[in-house]
Specification:
Elements lengths: L18 H7 L3 H9 L15 H6 L6 H16 L2 E2 L1 H10 L4 E4 L3 H6 L6 E2 L2 H10 L6 E4 L5 H11 L5 E4 L2 H8 L14
Parallel strand pairs: 1-5, 2-3, 2-4, 4-5
Helix pairs in contact: 2-4
Length: 191
Amino acid sequence: MSTAAPPAETSPLSGDTTMGELLQSYPGAQRALFAQYHIGGCQSCGFSPGETIAQLCARNDNIPVADFIQHVLASHDADAKILISPQEFAGLRQSTPALKVLDARTREEHEAVKIDGAQLLTQALIQEIFDKWDKTQPVIIYDHQGTRSLDAASYFIGHGFGETKCLAGGIDAYSLEVDPTIPRYRVEIED
């Protein structure tokens, strides 16, 4: 399987970049920062969207800003290697009739709109996958816009499913670029 290029909207990073800007341009950064520095994974190590990289580094054992940025960029490059473009995914679906497609969205989103043949990723299904599925076969994971599914794909890769890919841009990009019959939507969060 080939991989998609990294998202085009990445911004240069500096100590003045806010965490909100960082996560917008580099969606996998929170996972990478938690793994490397134990930052952003829980309430005690969290950050606010308006906090700058320099401020976050200063209050976390004075992490050198350059090291922090280099880690984000290296992690972003690694994430790009597990992305598959909507067009590549469509081609793979045609050439691989038994392709495993997993939906990492909520049950409500899955029931409202989904890619044909996709299975909702549940704990029970994960157990079945780990017990019975062939780890050498391709697995494609998608979500709404391609951010949370990176975490799920990384989890599967970490458990030996080396042919796991994440649909770049999620079901939204697939609807825009490949199958306009799939309704687009936006998620509204209640306060």
